[in-house]
Amino acid sequence: MRQEWEPEDLIEVWTLLEEDQERLRNKSGANRLGFALLLKFFEAEARFPEDAGEIPVPTVSYVAQQVKVLAEEWAAYDWAGRAIKRHRTEIRGAFGFRECTKEDQAQLAEWLAVELCGVELNRDRLAEAGPAAVTTGWSRRRPGVSPGWWARQSAPSRSGSARPPWAGCRR
Q1: Under 8 Å CB-to-CB from 155, ≥6 apart: which residues?
Q2: CA-to-CA distance for 164 and 161, rounded, in angstroms?
Q3: Would you state the pLDDT for residue 50?
Q4: Residue 168 buriedness (CB in 10 A; 0-12 / 13-18 / 19+)
Q5: Could you read off the pLDDT of 131-163 as tens digits, one per residue?
Q6: Any residues with CB less than 8 A from the CB of 23 and at least 6 apart, and which?
Q7: What average pLDDT is seen over the chain?
Q8: Short-list 55, 88, 89, CA closest to 73
Q9: In 3D, which of 14, 27, 98, 91 has the Cα closest to residue 57?
Q10: Which of 161, 36, 14, 126 is nearest to 87 (CA)?
Q11: Are 134 and 108 in contact, with CB atoms under 8 Å apart?
């Protein structure tokens, strides 16, 4: 994720909507801020950040103002505890995602073999295409927010399916 944000981009991507605010009702302090930042990061990237440093500094201040928590609380968010696991589960559910299973991994490998390996021989491009294939076809599902993110794509793949069978599962 980019680390520098213009004010208008910050507002467009990191503003909490009413339904986001509803999800924050039972959270306070570092957990409230942490959940809000994970939620907006996931909405923008279709994945969770690897660590706190991946969240852009300007977004921490902007989101902290919205949730009425000091930005310094972000440093207290527990990246290894039960709360972040619950937060990730809740956020995945909000966007229709779930954790990948071994069956999903097998389907992904099969789909990649059929869809990509038969047409792409360059190893570097294959390595780039794999992760991209997992999130391809998703755009924002929220009304009134920039189209082109989170709505399911309906164009069929080479095998004729509308989207990869594992679509919707991410870490």
Answers
A1: 162
A2: 7
A3: 93
A4: buried
A5: 666 554 333 333 333 333 333 333 334 344 444
A6: 35, 39, 90, 94
A7: 79
A8: 55
A9: 14
A10: 36
A11: yes
